Amino acid sequence: MLINCVAYQNGRKLADIAVADISEYVARPDCFVWVALFQPTNEELDEMAVEFKLHPLAVEDARKGHQRPKIEEYEDSLFAVLHTLETAPDDPDARLVRGEVAMFVGRNYILSVRHRTQKSFAEVRARCEREPELLRNGSGFVFYALMDTVVDRYFPILDGVESELEGIEEQIFVHNAARSNIEALYALKQKLMVLKHAIDPLMEATGKLYGGRVPQVCTGMGEYFRDVYDHLHRIHETIEGIREMLTTAIQVNVGMISLSENEVTKKLAAWAAIIAVPTMVAGIYGMNFKIMPELEWTFGYPFAIGLMAAIDLYLYSRFRKARWL
Amino acid sequence: MLINCVAYQNGRKLADIAVADISEYVARPDCFVWVALFQPTNEELDEMAVEFKLHPLAVEDARKGHQRPKIEEYEDSLFAVLHTLETAPDDPDARLVRGEVAMFVGRNYILSVRHRTQKSFAEVRARCEREPELLRNGSGFVFYALMDTVVDRYFPILDGVESELEGIEEQIFVHNAARSNIEALYALKQKLMVLKHAIDPLMEATGKLYGGRVPQVCTGMGEYFRDVYDHLHRIHETIEGIREMLTTAIQVNVGMISLSENEVTKKLAAWAAIIAVPTMVAGIYGMNFKIMPELEWTFGYPFAIGLMAAIDLYLYSRFRKARWL
Amino acid sequence: MLINCVAYQNGRKLADIAVADISEYVARPDCFVWVALFQPTNEELDEMAVEFKLHPLAVEDARKGHQRPKIEEYEDSLFAVLHTLETAPDDPDARLVRGEVAMFVGRNYILSVRHRTQKSFAEVRARCEREPELLRNGSGFVFYALMDTVVDRYFPILDGVESELEGIEEQIFVHNAARSNIEALYALKQKLMVLKHAIDPLMEATGKLYGGRVPQVCTGMGEYFRDVYDHLHRIHETIEGIREMLTTAIQVNVGMISLSENEVTKKLAAWAAIIAVPTMVAGIYGMNFKIMPELEWTFGYPFAIGLMAAIDLYLYSRFRKARWL
Amino acid sequence: MLINCVAYQNGRKLADIAVADISEYVARPDCFVWVALFQPTNEELDEMAVEFKLHPLAVEDARKGHQRPKIEEYEDSLFAVLHTLETAPDDPDARLVRGEVAMFVGRNYILSVRHRTQKSFAEVRARCEREPELLRNGSGFVFYALMDTVVDRYFPILDGVESELEGIEEQIFVHNAARSNIEALYALKQKLMVLKHAIDPLMEATGKLYGGRVPQVCTGMGEYFRDVYDHLHRIHETIEGIREMLTTAIQVNVGMISLSENEVTKKLAAWAAIIAVPTMVAGIYGMNFKIMPELEWTFGYPFAIGLMAAIDLYLYSRFRKARWL
Amino acid sequence: MLINCVAYQNGRKLADIAVADISEYVARPDCFVWVALFQPTNEELDEMAVEFKLHPLAVEDARKGHQRPKIEEYEDSLFAVLHTLETAPDDPDARLVRGEVAMFVGRNYILSVRHRTQKSFAEVRARCEREPELLRNGSGFVFYALMDTVVDRYFPILDGVESELEGIEEQIFVHNAARSNIEALYALKQKLMVLKHAIDPLMEATGKLYGGRVPQVCTGMGEYFRDVYDHLHRIHETIEGIREMLTTAIQVNVGMISLSENEVTKKLAAWAAIIAVPTMVAGIYGMNFKIMPELEWTFGYPFAIGLMAAIDLYLYSRFRKARWL
After folding, report:
1. What is the 8-class DSSP label of residue D218?
2. Could you tell me if the ipTM is greater than 0.90?
3. How close A130 comes to chain B (CA, Å)?
4. Residue of D244, D286, D288 with shortest CB distance to B295
5. Cα separations (Å) of E1 from B207, B285, C187, E38?
6. Is the pLDDT of residue D256 over 70?
7. B243 at the A interface (CB within 8 A)?
8. Rounded Cα gap, residues C147 and C69, in angstroms
9. Which residues make beta-bridge pairs with D102?
10. Model confidence pTM above 0.95
11. pLDDT value at position D212?
């Protein structure tokens, strides 16, 4: 589905143009075309490939989707794939939905193809159009603005993961929470891996957009792409930190399970003793010996009961002190 | 066994030729020869070595098989070994069968030697012959097409591994599935290692087929080999992700075992108490003291039984609340 | 809040100057301006950006805070972010409070922006002013002095972490300390990760301030920045060492939990035997057989009691020897 | 002990020569000397050092042995140390015996010094002498032939380790094999580490014998040394794979121990119940209440026994169903 | 404390000289001064700094001590810090005592500063003076000789660690050694980390003293420093090997704890059964039914006792067979 197809000149919107006119505008040296597609049909994509003269391998990747994040050079144009991550709006704890944005960036065009992503990039276009002095930088700047937006959208997800971890950490030493903790830790790890697979290849690729040899469409924008790289690096480090804490948390949680098993065993042992001792005493006074003086005593029975109670009280207080009960 | 031996000119099939004529066609600057062998005898391989003037070390590797995946330069020719992975058709969960494809690629010849691999590459030849404008690129393009096919065949296996992991993940927090989970996780790890050993060295080697200094037979095909590299990189990252989740899953599974042991211990303790308390009471009323008023009561016996039942009901409800039962 | 705004010439303080005069002093080739801000308002920061001609991306980072430590070049100036770590004064074991110091360093100015950091850098200014021969080196030297101070303040925190680890290590083989150990180890790991995230990126960035290609404002100061790098490297290695010992300590602690469970089980088993055997004997003499000679014996009852005691004494001494009790 | 001391010319054996004549033959440009020592005395080694003009540090290393595998350049000669690994012939499962082969390789000499290694290299000499066209390449080729032989001898040991791992894997889910599994896994790990320490440094060193800047004595042999490197790389990867599976196998085995503990606990609980319930019933009918109607019944006793049996049968079948028994 | 202050010329001792004369001798092109200090006072160090013209940052490091091992260039001189490790003479198993040796090496002087190290380097001086042809190489050779000595002193400590590991490995599958094993493994890990922190940074630094760009004072000594590097590399690899085996040993030890818990549980279960069954039988014959034929039998009592004994014998032999007892 075609969302937008606009030509810009000198940082200002020239006109909404027809798809068939794209190649004409692209040929003009002083203007650039910015097209946005959402889950295009094969025909739409083929038409774009013709208008923009896109490389067949790149078009094939954009068509099939399910690429890893990457930024590839094809002669003097770039082909970039970014993952978008969205939480289902009704269930923020659920698995992340992974979408994709593919971008074709040439000297005077940029084409974005959005797949399985709810949130559009209309706001990026609006902001760019409000800042013509920046938009004058052309397709390279739009490319930066789109990447920056995708990357900025990772932060709330990362914050969510961090606060989920903190939530689990508060539960980790609580009794009887082991099962739910371990399930939550595993689910968090899955989420983290999705995030990691979106970030790491992109960070690596972005690192080549500033510094030494830079693709032509990005020249003069070094500080901007370094800023994106820096954000990605920050996310990367936070992910690594969470990953390590997750491993430790699982290890600690298994330890807590053993510890709580330990406590159950102690409790079991203590109560077993408290029941077994009176049973033994009762067994003794249930023996059938002819001569058992206590049996003849007037207060033999209360004495026996008292004996049992006294032993049990003693045991109970000892177990209490030893914190077995 | 010789499968095919064909000479091509200008991207079009010239003729099926005799093995003895190969060296003659190879000598022609404008045509190339594409030979496919399947588990060749020593004699067949020696004959090829003579016709194509292959390096003895490479021939030795192709003869013996059991090489690690690699791409080696011998002067202006390449020797490549790729692993093929196939599941037994009747048992998709079984161990993977590892075969090998060795390829000798020169300026105007390509020789593929297939070992322990059911699936042939006839479809590659057919597709190449349908696209003469691409086949015109010569042996380098055929080399790409064969690699691409081998790599594409890894994807369904990887998908199988991923869905096996998902299957286990659904079982991981289910009661009494610990043993089968742990067996499945171990088997999956074995499968993953086979896949990893097929991918990683190949990825590393493929990375040298585009970019800076490139073997002569691959020049001008950089974007195609980068595409293969990209697929391998994607598989590599998925494998690493699964590997990490497997480690976590095993760790979590061991935790679940401890947890379920914990629950058995609690159940055991609860039932032990429920049986032990009436036994103690019975023991007390089985004592032989002369004076035990309850024994004389008309409803002493029902009272004792009632006492036992009451205590047990109380215990049962407490254990229920505490989720020990 | 503006803390200080001073112009220096030839290593000596020239005058406290007004913010509006900064750009005038910065323009003089032979003097430099050193400004310190503490949690500035947006207006203060904007004014500085104008006076010093700061890059908007850097200003944005200083305004928002929550950056990872970094040192970035903007043309011939540097933008550095360092984390400050402070313990709450009333609770040294509590979580570390992470603050930030952002620094803008140009050929003849340095601007420091302190966020969420109690301890000021007044002492650095005082020391610098006492050593005019060093301060003569200009903004590069002040940059070094500030970095050195921030890094030196990591050492007492690191020492605290080390002695906490030693404290836990002394407890690790002590009975019944498993729960508190494991909680302490987890808290220590969290602290360590905070420290690690402050150090590692900074170390990497500092490594570029000496040796080969060095930013202009740092030239001639190589040995000083190498000294800072060396301190950071030392902290880094200590952190890595602690991290590895922490992992081992957690593993060992889980082992100690299992071991202590083992001992509880043994104790439980021993006492169960000591109670169960007399109960069995009592049961036997409680049988109602017509002919049971012992029951007729005068000393049958003491004999039975003696038998029970003898068996128990024997069991007790055996369990003692086997260290089950 | 001197094993051989032979001069070669043009790839053919010239003569067995006396040690004292070595320096004379080494001086001839068109011939080379190949000497083999086995556990030489200090005097033998000193004599060789004089004849070949060996570097004192290298001689010292060859004398003391216990070096790590390495290949060092001393001006235009090489000094190489390789580990040989042998299994005791009577006990293939025992620890590996580590020997050493040191080699001094100059433009026209090669001296091998064998320590603690049963198997000689006589076969290498024999094969070389049968292939004069290869031996014509001089000391560099002999160096290759010896390295190739040492490396080839690692393969059966690696195969042994692999099949030991497979043997353990078949046992890993078998009941009651945990102790022997864990011992076998630990012993295997020890073996693997010995292998790893022989391979990894050698692989690294061999990687410098082909490609870019190559020691003079190896020039023109690049493809041969790459072949050795390739074998070492294959062994290295197999070792890494086994190492990872070993870690997983130990982890899984610990899980299986917990699981089997779990099963013992369940069995224990089940039998305890089956014994405790009749004991309780017997206790009840052992109470001394005056009025207990059942006691008067003619079939009271069989009824009680029947009750016990019925309860136990019911329990037994339930435990069976739940797979506790 | 000043230990020695000697001037050398042409590899031979010239004279013991006064500290105040050092700068005079250092100025002579053909001689060099070798000074040894042991825990110097601030004044001694300041005097040296003046005489040798040392860099203030290096002097500061030598004064404060507690540096990580490093080799730093200051213009044409070197500043090196090495860790010395010593075991307390009366307790070889105790923690290692870490000392430091700082060395200032210039074109014609070397100054060593020893901290917290019992063993002096007098032997190095004596050996150097016995080999004037080597000592002629000047301060670079003395630097090598001191480093070589420090590194050689690591080997007995490493051997101690290795044999401690072997000692634990022999105990690891022994019953009831779990607690002492785990304590020993932890202590060994601590020792290993101390060793690792002494070796790894030094190895890295030493790697820069030979090969490509080498500090001036080390030129022409490449093979000697490579030898030191090689020793450090060997120690490094042994440490890594021990580290991995330690991790595995701890893991295995935890497994053995679980296994032994398993065995205790089985023993407990077996004995519980052996006691519980007679108790049940006794309970049955202790019931008060009017009609219980066995009670009337003449040999009822022996029959009951026999029954109990028979069941127990049967149980005992079954448990024995199942290796529960």
Report:
1. G
2. no
3. 38
4. D288
5. 60, 89, 45, 5
6. yes
7. no
8. 12
9. D81, D113
10. no
11. 77
